[in-house]
Design a protein that fits this description.
Structural class: alpha/beta
Helix content: 25-40%
Number of helices: 9
Largest sheet: 8 strands, mixed
Radius of gyration: 17 Å
Oligomer: single chain
Bound molecules: 2-amino-2-deoxy-6-O-phosphono-alpha-D-glucopyranose
Strand order of the largest sheet: 1-2-11-10-7-3-4-6
Length: 261
């Protein structure tokens, strides 16, 4: 099956497209489900157009629907992922592939296995020395063709918490109180540290797709898009000179309602 067929599927979705600040493309779909489907269709074009592309995958609740749709579509259109190189965006300290809450396990179950990705680089959150592990991971990275992001508390991208420098590379972070509280509310184990690709790694990707649904994430996005470009809101880095045209947002109507276009 060809990319043309995938594009044809895209056309039937009720898309509203807005040119955001710094030429960020904002794709608004009526519901979370449709935003996820549209994002998945866009991601699917990457392995079709560049079979050896490097893709960094985010994790989290936001990504569950797009990844499930990606697996379904890859099966329907027989899209091969075996020559794609997959990178890992972030991981909790103390967590590894075996833990139910680890992002490595999440990626294994929702991305690597269903898509049949062979060339994978995962962060080992269980490493004795997290700083050393961050340095090891950084040494493996090349700029991604596609960076898939969500957005978290305070406008964090990856685990780049408010205050993270825009030129940061893969590093160990102390999670913000807001992030720790969010995880506890979700019934997860209390984690205080993580390893994340830095804002600098994110910005050097050729394309950046950010997916978000709901009022709360819409508010963080609004700060990122329409308030000052400031490390206090890491996602505002997406508006730095030259970055905006590489960025596409896939959001639902609820998130869009929080944006002051
Ligand atoms: C998580 C991860 C990010 C993710 C963001 C949103 O904690 N650090 O990679 O994109 O926060 O997560 P969720 O979609 O679960 O709200």
């Amino acid at each position: 099956m060809t990319a043309f067929s995938v594009e044809a599927e895209i056309c039937v979705l009720p898309l509203r497209e807005i040119n955001g600040p710094e030429n960020i493309r904002i794709c608004i779909l009526p519901t979370e489900q449709l935003a996820a489907r549209f994002a998945a269709r866009s991601i699917l074009n990457i392995p079709i157009q560049k079979p050896d592309a490097i893709i960094t995958f985010a994790t989290g609740n936001t990504m569950m629907k797009p990844y499930a749709e990606l697996a379904r579509l890859s099966h329907v259109y027989d899209v091969r992922w075996s020559t794609i190189r997959m990178n890992h965006l972030d991981e909790y300290g103390g967590s590894c592939n075996g833990d139910s809450e680890s992002f490595a396990r999440y990626l294994t179950e929702r991305v690597i296995t269903p898509l049949g990705i062979v060339n994978t680089h995962l962060i080992n959150g269980r490493a004795k020395d997290l700083k050393q592990e961050a340095a090891r991971y950084e040494s493996l990275l090349h700029p991604a063709d596609l960076m898939i992001l969500g957005i978290g508390p305070g406008g964090h991208i990856g685990f780049n918490e408010p205050g993270t420098l825009f030129d940061s590379r893969t590093h160990v972070v102390q999670l913000s109180e807001e992030t720790v509280a969010r995880d506890i509310t979700r019934g997860q184990t209390k984690r205080t540290h993580a390893i994340t690709q830095g804002v600098g790694n994110i910005l050097e990707a050729k394309q950046i797709y950010l997916i978000a649904y709901g009022i709360e994430k819409g508010r963080d996005l609004n700060t990122a898009l329409y308030e000052s470009i400031d490390p206090r809101c890491p996602a505002s880095a997406l508006r730095l000179p030259g970055i905006g045209p590489k960025v596409t947002l896939f959001i639902d109507q609820e998130a869009a309602a929080s944006l002051n276009f």
